[in-house]
Amino acid sequence: MDLILRNARTPDDAETLVDIGIDKGRIAAIRPGLAAEGEEIQLDGRLVSPGFIETHIHLDKSCILDRCQAKKGDLDEAIGEVAKAKKAFTPEDVYERAKRTLEKCIMNGTTHMRTQLEVDPGIGLRGLEGVLPLIDEYKWAIDIEICIFPQEGLLNNPGTDELMVEALKKGGTVVGAAPYTDSDPHGQIDRIFEIVREFDIDIDMHLDFGPTCEDLDLDYVCKLADRFGRGGRTAIGHVTKLSVAPKDVFEAAARRMADAGVALTVLPSTDLFLMGRHMEHSVMRGVTATHKLIHHGVNCSLSTNNVLNPFTPFGDCSLLRMANLNANICQIGARSDIRECFKMITTRSARLMNLADYGLEEGKSADLVVLDCQTPEQAVAELPPVLYAFKRGRRTVTRQPAVLHRPT
Fold this sequence. Notes:
By secondary structure, the chain is of the alpha/beta class. It has helices at residues 75-86, 91-107, 126-137, 160-169, 185-199, 218-227, 247-260, 268-274, 290-295, 319-329, 335-343, 347-352, 376-382, and strands spanning 3-10, 13-23, 26-31, 39-42, 47-50, 52-57, 110-118, 143-149, 174-177, 202-207, 234-238, 262-266, 300-302, 368-371, 386-391, 394-398. The strands form three sheets. It has an eight-stranded parallel β-sheet. A four-stranded mixed β-sheet has the order 3-2-1-4, with no helix packed on it.
């Protein structure tokens, strides 16, 4: 064996200590008392999990707080401020900021990522030119796919459609949307489904970002996913409107999504920060209860979204922190639902992104993270540090546990 992780606990069976043997970048064996030789790391009963997965993050516009104002703190201001700032973006600038954010993700145990990337006549393909080199440069630590989308509208923004198609030909592997910024939201959604039929790629849309549950575009997306057989290959993000939906509306939407195979990513930090700005008291949280959607059969993930920009002026790129924040906001207390929060940054995220070669199973790629705790529930509740991360069996991160120096 190239490497053996001794005395580990796994998410599915935290009671049993096992050894995990890694050979040629893959998990070769998972069993107690593994009789094998090779480099060893003694884990002393700590939790080993498949690596964390960012299903929705914006590398291209991270770390720009010094270039923007955030006086109102609402969505319109954030879009406007970033639109002004990105006109001055260069590929080199995007690369440096994205690299800084990417390394934070890696240090926090992320091994797979889908980054959203804006194209429009204001920025052209400069964002793509800045992010693309990172895919190859950091493949030793993380797999990155790029979702091309029109933040400032598509049908109302001439030239954007052609840029999206060009970006998909030059390295984008997923297509997205933001219909709530378009003059014809359903027209934008129609065009996105046309594009996926041409390129045979997955969809990941920003959707239903608003303070009321009226006019849910997710119904239309589910209809098209059914019509064109895109179930399991269509994801939507935010959907803050469901956070204020009455029970009957919420459950009807959940059934529709489950039947259509449309998954949801909730972005707790951004949704909490931007929603409710129109309210002076009893301010809404704006974070949709993913655990309740899961009860109805909807696949869900949690992700970071924006980092240090007007959409979210915070962020350390810790997905465990997102899981913990989500559990707090949505008042999740049941042990099974807390475990689902952990799955929403691991196995459920892998399912959303259709990652076949992922998981803590023999034969899968050894993309792993070691946490200073014993169970997934502890990980969500206590935010333990990432002690080790591995990509295809190679160690990418090491962090020493804190030591308490008692008086002698």
